[in-house]
């Protein structure tokens, strides 16, 4: 009986971020990215420490809002700045004051517990939000062997769900989240290659 109760409680905890995101207000994204419901961002800190190689490229001609902070975080955490830009586009549509109904805050929609674990004291400060979100993303990349899609799924649904399902969880919201970011990231990468 206790085992069944623990399984039920674990499943409820696993589904809460999905339910919270489903009830979050919609965020309208600019024409460069797909529209989707607002996301709460990563709900908890990941286990492994962040480290990685230097980022290899910068945002599109510096025309992107917060390009300097995005480039700096990409360099610091070894993440392509265009991936960080794509996450911000999906999470908040570049609105630094964005708050979901679940309580996720700022450009990278960090939950308060995640902000605290990343040392973010003001999640509405673009520099802090970008740095904290990039750190979470770096940790997810490290935890999942550099697999960008699994790292994005962990950012959205939590690393426990990705581990439990052995891949992107079967949540439509998370699957769409990963697909949308990867499509936007590919578009930006293609544009960078053409320039």
DSSP summary: helix tally: 8
- Cα gyration radius (Å): 16 Å
Strand content: under 5%
Identify the overall geometry: globular
Report, as a whole number of angstroms, the end-to-end distance: 62 Å
Q: Can you count the beta strands?
A: 2
Strand order within the widest beta sheet: 1-2
Q: How would a textbook summarize the main sheet? A: 2 strands, antiparallel
**What class do helices, strands and sheet pairing give?**
mainly alpha
Q: Low-confidence parts, pLDDT < 50 over ≥5 residues?
A: 17-57
> Can you give the helix content as a percent range?
55-70%
How many domains, as an integer? Answer: 1
CATH topology: Lysozyme
Mean pLDDT: 79
What pattern of helices and strands is seen along the backbone?
HEEHHHHHHH
**Second rung of CATH, namely the architecture:** Orthogonal Bundle
Question: What is the class in the CATH system?
Answer: Mainly Alpha
Please give the structural blueprint.
Elements: H1 2-22, E1 26-27, E2 36-37, H2 67-77, H3 81-92, H4 112-117, H5 126-143, H6 148-157, H7 159-165, H8 172-194
Antiparallel strand pairs: 1-2
Helix pairs in contact: 2-3, 2-5, 3-8, 5-6, 6-7, 6-8
């Amino acid at each position: 009986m206790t085992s069944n109760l623990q399984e039920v409680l674990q499943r409820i905890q696993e589904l809460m971020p999905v339910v919270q995101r489903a009830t979050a207000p919609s965020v309208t994204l600019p024409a460069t990215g797909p529209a989707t419901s607002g996301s709460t961002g990563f709900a908890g800190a990941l286990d492994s420490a962040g480290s990685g190689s230097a980022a290899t490229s910068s945002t599109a001609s510096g025309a992107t809002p917060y390009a300097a902070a995005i480039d700096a975080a990409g360099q610091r955490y070894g993440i392509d700045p265009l991936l960080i830009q794509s996450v911000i586009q999906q999470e908040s549509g570049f609105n630094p004051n964005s708050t979901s109904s679940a309580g996720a805050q700022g450009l990278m929609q960090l939950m308060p517990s995640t902000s605290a674990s990343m040392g973010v004291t003001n999640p509405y400060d673009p520099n802090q939000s970008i740095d904290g979100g990039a750190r979470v993303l770096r940790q997810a990349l490290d935890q999942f062997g550099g697999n960008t899609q699994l790292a994005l799924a962990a950012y959205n649904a939590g690393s426990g769900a990705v581990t439990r399902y052995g891949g992107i969880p079967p949540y439509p919201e998370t699957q769409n989240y990963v697909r949308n970011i990867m499509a936007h990231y590919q578009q930006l990468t293609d544009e960078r290659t053409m320039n």
